[in-house]
Design goal:
mainly alpha, 276 residues, Cytochrome Bc1 Complex, Chain D, domain 2, two-stranded antiparallel ribbon, disordered N terminus
Length: 276
């Protein structure tokens, strides 16, 4: 009964979407419900920890006093510092930047392409006399978005896919997600759909559902205080399968993020969390 209610709830959350978008998410919800009947879909925002109570307990302890508080404070200062025009980010980003990150990426009809939350940041910078940040610059773009995305904590993901052009971008991202790449001939889905919950060396592989809700993350392997954006992680994953990825902010990775994020529609956002 609970599974059926959850499936209906998350399907309704995407009722305004193209059928293929809701259907794709619905298929994955059913897949994971069938495979892991004791795991609640909404808990998958915690990634691989849904398969390890010990890991979740350690995470909860770390998040009581996370090692990246100074980085978040630096990001807040960047957010509040006036740009050359005298305006702050909050004055040039819709709704002061609050409760909007869950709507990104989105397809911009005027630009005829997918735009990400990072694009929104750079558009604001350029409109106010500043040079855009590099999308791969974790010290600047990573730190700023680590704070900015927390302004949407608690928001439900709501990625819209409407026009034919938007659907084409969505399908391109889907092709990348399910397509095999690199010398190891792996796809994103190999790890995060078909092998989710399994161990790869010393790591448990996380499920695709809820996977885009919590970025940037702060990884223990990087000292716990350096932000890693979602697209920076894409580049790292491609590297692990020995594939040369397009750069952060590229059309390929923007479309991938567009598709990937739509699979978490209706799930709760919580940015800037700790990961191994």
């Amino acid at each position: 009964m609970k599974k059926t209610s959850l499936l209906l709830m998350m399907t309704l959350a995407t009722a305004t979407q193209a059928g293929s978008v809701a259907e794709e998410q619905g298929k994955l919800i059913k897949y994971f419900n069938d495979r892991y009947p004791d795991v609640k879909i909404e808990s998958m925002i915690h990634g691989a920890m849904v398969f390890s109570p010990d890991a979740k307990s350690q995470y909860d302890s770390i998040m009581e006093m996370p090692p990246f508080l100074d980085t978040l404070e630096k990001g807040k200062k960047m957010w509040e510092t006036p740009l050359k025009s005298g305006k702050t980010y909050a004055q040039c980003i819709p709704n002061g930047g609050k409760n909007i990150a869950g709507n990104y990426p989105q397809f911009n009809e005027q630009k005829a392409k997918v735009v990400t939350f990072e694009d929104l940041i750079n558009d604001c910078r350029k409109a106010n006399g500043e040079e855009p940040y590099s999308y791969g610059d974790m010290d600047k773009m990573g730190t700023l978005t680590a704070y900015a995305r927390t302004l949407s904590d608690g928001m439900k993901v709501d990625i819209q896919v409407g026009s034919p052009a938007a659907k084409n971008a969505y399908e391109d991202g889907k092709k990348t997600y399910y397509g095999r790449a690199g010398q190891l001939n792996f796809s994103c889905a190999n790890c995060h759909v078909h092998s989710a919950g399994n161990n790869l060396r010393s790591e448990i592989l996380s499920p695709v559902l809820g996977q885009t809700t919590h970025w940037p993350v702060f990884r223990g392997k990087d000292g716990g205080d350096k932000a890693t954006t979602l697209q920076n992680r894409y580049v790292g994953c491609f590297k692990q399968v020995r594939h040369i990825s397009d750069k952060e902010g590229s059309e390929m990775l923007n479309n991938l993020e567009y598709f990937h994020s739509s699979l978490s529609n209706g799930m709760t956002m919580q940015a800037s969390v700790y990961r191994k």
